[in-house]
Amino acid sequence: MDYSSSWLNSFLVRFRLSANLFLSQFEPLALLLAPLLTLFIARLLHSLLSVIHEKGLKATVLALFMRSIKLVPGVQSYIDAEKQKVVDKLQSGSKSKKEHWRTELPTTGLGVGVIEEMKDVKSNDADWKGKCSGTVYIGGSESEGHFSLINEACSMFAHTNPLHLDVFQSVARFEAEVVAMTADLLGCKEKASGGQVCGNMTSGGTESILLAVKTSRDYMKAKKGITRPEMIIAESAHSAYDKAAQYFNIKLRRVPVNKEFKADVKVIRKQINRNTILIVGSAPGYPHGIIDPIQELGKLADSYGICLHVDLCLGGFVLPFALKLGYPIPPFDFTVRGVTSISADVHKYGLAPKGTSVVLYRNHDIRKHQFVAVTEWSGGLYVSPTIAGSRPGGVIAGAWAAMMSLGQQGYLENTRKIMEVSKMIQKGIKEIPELFIIGNPDMTIVAFGSAVLDIFEVNDIMSGKGWHLNALQRPNSIHICVTLQHVPVVDAFLQDLREAVQTVKENPGPISGGLAPIYGAAGRMPDRGMVQDLLVNYMDGTC
């Protein structure tokens, strides 16, 4: 024991002498700075590797190259000037319209005369009847039928606020019943759901998704102790997940879709790690109207013990009825093991007033993580279920009125109409040789592109004919989201589309005032940061 101790002391003395002799060759300042410099370089490498891991080598190198280029005198100012030209083109005259907008209260109020002014302003809106992709889901004129019914319901409860449960008990009942009826459509009474499905109404699909993501984050933190959360989505998943990732400090991993434009389960599996809290499926996805393999995603989520959110914002009030009509709809709801939350918009195919959606959870243990409870506020004890505190009771009442007035038979008939129109549009597009349909649409969204024409030029011609379609990327394409407004105009749409294709075929090239060059350039632009800047500058000048 003494010998070992003596040997160790002798070794340490020799080591210290050798080290001091070696280090005596260097300046004291160099010895002080060396570890700090090493730490700095290690930190820099770690940051670089993290960026490469997140964005990929190609995107990282490109970003560094673009930053270097912008350091050249005059380059940044030139790029800014060119970006402003694009922003001005996108806004296309909206600045001149804003010059006449009010910036202060009138000295003397207009009284009931304000209604006439509102009618005058409204007369400048675009003609949306039958001409818009999605947008207005109720059929007919806004002054009659279902429109009149929900308008009256909203007006009757315009003064109400479900924050005050003790005062507006009627609205509290309406909300609970809208949630329960929606849950019933989505498998809550089936044994596989667990029998505890619950939820709340929100202002729209984005808020429903935001809440589902926030709830999943906090639930997984409590369940598995995850403090650096990540979620995985297909590139076809809604942009609301990007918003949620930014709001709630969650790392977002976006993966490509497969050849059928569905979420690729194998690729998603490879991305799952110890920080993964959530994977996502869409039924259907907004871009192409294609349902992701929810059953396979459910098995994946269940096997890893993570959450699975299903985006049914478009499909919630169509797929249950399409299934009853005999359409081959794959499983999509709480009957799928592994699904932990669902979002479904009532203000789309539920034909409710704008500002109504539902977020549902498999059980109360999950939903509790959605709520915010405050115990130390001088204003008293406070608890709120959703992002908004005060909420408009009028639209909740309107949603309840819409669902009750239509009933299952009403939704069944509406689904039959729009599904048939969707099939007619698909058939008509297939008969236009210059066009092709993206994937195999499962519902009422039909996306189409072209291998021989600039599809955005076709879109510009359609815009000139009064149609408001949606431009897509990866691949470049446009889509129409079929609503009841399109039932009487489907033949006119296909005729205009045939004419637009023929026009572009005979006279290729951008039209005056068209946005095809901008959409095309944005899709090809390798610096996605620049595209992001364009969008932000556009929005900043618009709202």
Automatic annotation (TrEMBL):
Its main location: endoplasmic reticulum. SUPFAM superfamilies: PLP-dependent transferases (SSF53383). GO terms for biological process: carboxylic acid metabolic process; sphingolipid catabolic process. The chain crosses the membrane at residues 29-49. It is an enzyme of class 4 (lyase). The modification N6-(pyridoxal phosphate)lysine is found at residue 348. One of its GO terms (cellular component) is endoplasmic reticulum. It is found in: Endoplasmic reticulum membrane. Its cofactor is pyridoxal 5'-phosphate. Coiled coil: none annotated. Its EC number is 4.1.2.27. It comes from the Eukaryota. GO terms for molecular function: pyridoxal phosphate binding; sphinganine-1-phosphate aldolase activity. Pathway: Sphingolipid metabolism; Lipid metabolism; sphingolipid metabolism. Keywords: Endoplasmic reticulum, Lipid metabolism, Lyase, Membrane, Pyridoxal phosphate, Signal-anchor, Sphingolipid metabolism, Transmembrane, Transmembrane helix. Belongs to the group II decarboxylase family. Sphingosine-1-phosphate lyase subfamily. This is Sphingosine-1-phosphate lyase.
